[in-house]
Give the backbone structure.
Amino acid sequence: MATIVSQVFPYLAILVFLVGAGYRIGVWATSPKKLNWKLYPVPEGLVGEASYIVGEWISFKMLFKNNRAIWLGSYVFHLSLVASAIWFLLLLLGVSAPWLSRLAAAGLFFSSIYLFVARLWIPQVRAISTPVEFFNLAIFIAMGGLGWSLTGRGLSGEMRRWVFSLAGFSPSVLPDEPVSSGSFSWSNSSSLTCLSPRCSTWPASILPFTKADGSIPTK
Amino acid sequence: MNEKNQSAEAKEDKKGKPRRTIDKYQLFRAAHVPREGRVKPFLECLDKVVKHELYKFPLKLYLDTCAKCNNCATLCHITCDDQSNPHWLPAKRSDLLRKVYKRRYTLLGRLLGKLVGAEDLTEELVDEMYESFYRCTMCRRCALECPMGVDNSLITRIGRFCLSEAGMVPHNFKVSVDSQLKGPTRNTSAIPERAFLDTIEFLNEEMQEMTGLPIEFPVNVKGAEILFVAPVSDYIMEADTLMGIAMTLYAAGASWTIATGAGSDSINYGVFYDDNWLRDIMLQLHDVVKDLGAKKLVIGECGHATKAQKVFAEYFGGKLDFEIKNIMEVTAQYIEEGRIKLDPSRNPDPVTLHDPCNLSRMGGLADTLRFVLRSAVSHFVEMEPHGNENYCCGGGGGTVGFEEIYDFRMEVGGRKKVQQLRETGAKIVAAPCANCKKQLRELVDYHGLNMEVAGIHDLVAKALVFDKAPGRKIEVVK
């Protein structure tokens, strides 16, 4: 079992993720633009378009302007994901920053709970929600909670070695202790690259299909 | 006392008629549409649309990526102040089509059904769609600041298209389109050519009496540079606007003409609900442009007709050998080039501008409208918000023609616009769109606002300075 979760699942998850994401990007990239269906103001030029998009990424200004309650949860949620990605990159570079991991995990945990409750509590948001929205948030609550409780236990070096072993296509087997495996789950899921050997692997691998389940057309 | 309370507590409208309670399903109940057998044709249409080169990419994108954050409801003129009715939430409306799409075309929708928001289409769902898709005015304000870029307007439009294929079409759309494409008059109001020409003659006399100049509407002039086409209803309802445009073109020394028959009407209701009719009506008008040999097709003060031509013309009409412009662009150019002179002191009353969604947010003409209006009036007051962010009048998307939902348009759809109008303190609201003007006049009347509704060219006409012109008297007729 340890072999499967440490050496097979990660590659399978990466494969599913890449195929799904590739399919989605491919479909969109090859779809022709036939209509001059503009909405003004239209950002002009590559710089204009880039600044428009990056401005939105950085601030979530559309939500901030119109929907402050949802913005708060959403902004912290996404900042936490970014923080965990930075932490993971630092880890690969050999820099240990457990405080960043804990901060990101706590942010993810509380913001996911906040968004879950908001989705339940605000009648009009509840009216447009389906079970899958709650399911996705529940997964992030689990990831955040697990990561928050288990980070900073001195497993960074071991995990780094394991990630490099995956990258070198000679994957090592992870230890079986619950604490360390939990820690690995959190650490890897935060990278958003589907490298985790535990519960976060599969949810992460279906990312291309969550808001894009239409990318597997049946007709 | 706020707007909502005022509306709720007033028992009678301005005319002393008792206010009626808003019927949430009034449109469907009043509709003369099939009550069964609609699922199959609806789905057959949807099958084609999801593969159609125009729609498969945007429709897929918009149906796939909604984050269900409800930001759209805060932007929509219907729900920005009151979200108590979930059926009017933009995301909820789009979900009506989204759930069918997921169930029919996605793996997870087929496997997991309602867990991922997927449902089979039923006759009851068709009824709900009809009611909901014809409450949306397709103004695209919700798309302006959707974090995911979802355009609920397109989803509404596709929903209406599929409903149309199932026979679910509002009566006034059907009658108007039939008249325009199949009737002897070839216009939406079924105005006979003789009556149309009589009206033109009357307007010519009016303009000559007002200005003392030989101004007239040239009719069916071959080789004129500009073919000007207005909504045919303007010749009855918006005579001041049309006369203002004729005076402007005369003052600029333009080579122009209007046309009879299919060339007398710029209205294209197909843009609201059915691409087949959209294409046929458009090509019918393009044939007139070609027959007359015009270099420019200029659409009058009409938002949807301008959008229909500018957005869809090349796709349905192929490579065009004539330009398409809105009259506001033409007038702005004449002012810039000094071909016409305006004296804004002739319009001293405070004037505000209602941005038609199809011209500003969707047409990029917000600055152009302001340039022309500011040139013609001396006291301009901005509405807040305005320009690309302006709220819909509440009668867009063809809904201004639905008398069945008059209460809804007055009490719900137009509520935000009334609040905006009041806050300007203006005496005149200028709206360069026939649909908007009708809705605004009804709102002004219903809510007892002390305000006139006018086209921009009504005011341009008053400000026009003719060289060597005798004394004249031009009044904006209410």
Observations:
- Chain B touches chain A through 61 residues (CB under 8 Å).
